[in-house]
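$ ./design --mode recover --in tokens.txt
reading tokens...
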């Protein structure tokens, strides 16, 4: 069994065949840092984070690069409105992006290149294209000759004559062909600029990723990721610039994720129908939010809906509850790893099939059901059952935390800290409940239990007396 990924270029699932055996090189188009991250950004972050984690789980040595676009029209416009330098805006939102990713439990990239730090590499690529007559300069601007690259359109499967770049409309009368796009933009008043052979100016958006990906991962790196909205023109133009200059293959595989939708529209800052990622994390928590992102196959659209997020909270709670109960029943017994082999195999089979996260999470539900079937015997002291539930809990935590990034252990650690603070009060209340039960005052006993439940305290009665723990609460529905 081997990992297969859907490659946008080939429009098919293909076996992952890395450039270097045992290694995996991944480039992800990162944020344009001019506003805080929204829930739509979080999907790309989680999909690529899980891809990276899973490649590591399967034994690959991963090099993960995600750039920062810190010079771009939107950043300049934001700075102008705030009457600050564009670098101030870019620095502020880069820090905010990285903090939010950390909260979302997204591992930081191995390399985080900034566009402004790679202007020389961009200029070098532009000059190569000019030297090959595949680009031309007009009044300090440099445009790529789209029709000079015969493979143009192979990623998006569009016919050249049917295309529109969707940008640089103001330069249409200066281009040789309306399809041509800007790689270098001449300096304008009060805008950042760098010296170049064509005059002071700044790079266009598409040249940035072509130069940074090749700089840090080399030619023919393994996987290029991004949202489906970037297939054209951004990724199409990345391929054209690199392959027109150097030949060969820019990226071996193209992995794209579907968009997050709000109703019938894509969630987008330009439309204004966004939910801040930080707000969603505050309301729903890291594990549930990541589970929601993984509730649909990564190439399909995902609709933001509070009931689906509530479902994800319930799933996260089920996993946490099983691990807590299994550890309590198993004690310090040595786990029996053989009991989890079929569940591990089922998870791997699902993920190997183009990172089929919904199917993979379904295998974890089967694991928990298997474990719950053994919990009664384990709690009663059956040594074999204790070893079995210990192994299943360990496997669930390994998969959920190391591969899916759900943070079960973090949740349990936070719960344990809270329970330690609450213990004197809750133990006193439970003592009153036990006295009411002993006096056969069951109405009072039930009322006490209901009050604890309303406060987020779960009480389980057993042969050795009541056991209690805090529950993850399903938050109120977000307004949509």
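writing sequence...
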């Amino acid at each position: 069994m081997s990992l297969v990924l859907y490659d946008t270029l080939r429009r098919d699932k293909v076996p992952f065949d890395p450039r270097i055996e045992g290694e995996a090189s991944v480039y992800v188009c990162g944020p344009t840092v001019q506003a805080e991250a929204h829930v739509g950004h979080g999907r790309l972050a989680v999909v690529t984070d899980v891809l990276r984690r899973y490649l590591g789980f399967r034994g690959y040595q991963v090099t993960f690069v995600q750039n920062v676009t810190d010079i771009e029209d939107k950043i300049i416009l934001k700075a102008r409105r705030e009457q600050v330098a564009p670098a101030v805006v870019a620095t502020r939102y880069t820090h905010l992006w990285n903090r939010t990713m950390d909260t979302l439990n997204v591992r930081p990239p191995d390399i985080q290149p900034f566009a402004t730090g790679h202007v020389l590499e961009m200029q070098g690529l532009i000059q190569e294209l000019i030297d090959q007559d595949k680009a031309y300069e007009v009044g300090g601007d440099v445009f790529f000759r789209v029709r000079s690259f015969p493979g143009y359109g192979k990623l998006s499967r569009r016919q050249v004559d049917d295309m529109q770049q969707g940008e640089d409309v103001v330069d249409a009368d200066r281009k040789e062909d309306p399809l041509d796009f800007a790689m270098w933009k001449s300096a304008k008043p009060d805008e950042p600029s760098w010296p170049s052979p064509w005059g002071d100016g700044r790079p266009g958006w598409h040249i940035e990723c072509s130069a940074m990906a090749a700089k840090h991962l080399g030619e023919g790196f393994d996987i290029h990721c991004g949202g489906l909205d970037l297939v054209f023109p951004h990724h199409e133009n990345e391929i054209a610039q690199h392959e027109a200059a150097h030949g060969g293959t820019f990226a071996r595989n193209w992995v794209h994720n579907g968009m997050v939708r709000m109703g019938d529209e894509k969630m987008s800052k330009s439309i204004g129908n966004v939910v801040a990622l930080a707000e969603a994390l505050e309301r729903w928590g890291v594990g549930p939010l990541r589970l929601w992102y993984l509730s649909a196959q990564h190439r399909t659209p995902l609709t933001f809906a509070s009931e689906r997020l509530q479902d994800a909270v319930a799933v996260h709670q089920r996993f946490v509850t099983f691990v807590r109960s299994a550890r309590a029943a198993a004690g310090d017994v040595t786990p029996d790893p053989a009991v989890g082999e079929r569940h591990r195999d089922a998870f791997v089979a699902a993920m190997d099939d183009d990172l089929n996260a919904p199917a993979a999470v379904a295998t974890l539900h089967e694991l928990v059901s298997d474990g719950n079937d053994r919990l009664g015997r384990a709690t009663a002291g059956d040594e074999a059952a204790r070893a079995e539930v210990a192994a299943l809990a360990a496997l669930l935590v390994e998969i959920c935390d190391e591969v899916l990034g759900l943070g079960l252990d973090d949740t349990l650690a936070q719960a344990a800290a809270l329970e330690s603070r609450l213990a004197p009060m809750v133990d006193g209340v439970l003592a009153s409940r036990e006295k009411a039960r002993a006096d056969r005052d069951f109405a009072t006993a039930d009322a006490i239990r209901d009050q604890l439940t309303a406060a987020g305290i779960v009480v389980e009665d057993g042969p050795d007396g009541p056991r209690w723990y805090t529950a993850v609460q399903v938050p109120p529905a977000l307004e949509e």
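exit 0
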